[in-house]
Automatic annotation (TrEMBL):
It holds the Pfam family ARD. Pathway: Amino-acid biosynthesis; L-methionine biosynthesis via salvage pathway; L-methionine from S-methyl-5-thio-alpha-D-ribose 1-phosphate: step 5/6. This is Acireductone dioxygenase. Its cofactor is Fe(2+); Ni(2+). GO terms for cellular component: cytoplasm; nucleus. Its main location: cytoplasm. The lineage of its organism: Eukaryota, Fungi, Dikarya, Ascomycota, Pezizomycotina.
């Protein structure tokens, strides 16, 4: 896992966009993002038991898995949004980027590869993209029913109860 400030260039989202400014794990934790690296799925199972993630499935994001829908999916994943539940992903193969908003609204890019697990809190604005290799396979974990409806950023979603609770949870 590598974490850094996004360079804000408008070139292809699948490039690294590494500004060279490193973001610490502590800084990630302060915005409610938890990161782990687990080489064994036993460790994933332990975390799932501890946090009550009872359910899981797997998704492959690649042109061969998604066919002609691939480009559209990748574009949609990159739309800035939030969820009313945690987003938990364990990378089984390949690589991808999650971008999350810092407290002062800058993009922080998290490069995930095999064995990395990330937990995004409910209410955080974020987006996802594959990298230049166009291939990631991930386990999606969830507590009850997945509530993955993306709520795209806008004035109405800024007032969403989960968004407001998240913003209030941030340290000053
Ligand atoms: C999501 O919700 O953004 C995804 O599931 C992306 C693929 S999982 C790495
Ligand atoms: Ni999401």
């Amino acid at each position: 896992m590598k974490v850094y400030e996004y360079d804000n260039s408008t070139s292809d989202q699948r490039e690294d966009h590494d500004s060279g400014v490193v973001v610490s794990e502590t800084a990630l934790n302060q915005i409610g993002v938890l990161a782990h690296h687990f080489d064994s799925v036993d460790d994933v199972n332990a975390l799932a038991a501890e946090r009550g993630y009872k359910n899981r499935d797997e998704i492959t994001v690649s042109p061969s898995a998604l066919g002609e829908l691939y480009e559209e999916k990748v574009k949609n994943f990159f739309h800035e949004h939030l969820h009313e539940d945690e987003e938990i992903r364990y990378i089984l193969d390949g690589e991808g980027f999650f971008d999350v908003r810092s407290k002062d609204d800058r993009w922080v890019r998290i490069r995930l590869s095999k064995g990395d697990l990330i937990i995004l809190p409910a209410g955080i604005y974020h987006r996802f993209t594959t990298d230049k290799n166009n291939y990631v396979k991930a386990m999606r974990l969830f507590r009850e029913e997945p509530k993955w409806t993306p709520l795209n950023r806008g004035p109405q979603v800024d007032e969403n109860a989960y968004r407001k609770a998240y913003v209030e949870s941030l340290p000053i």
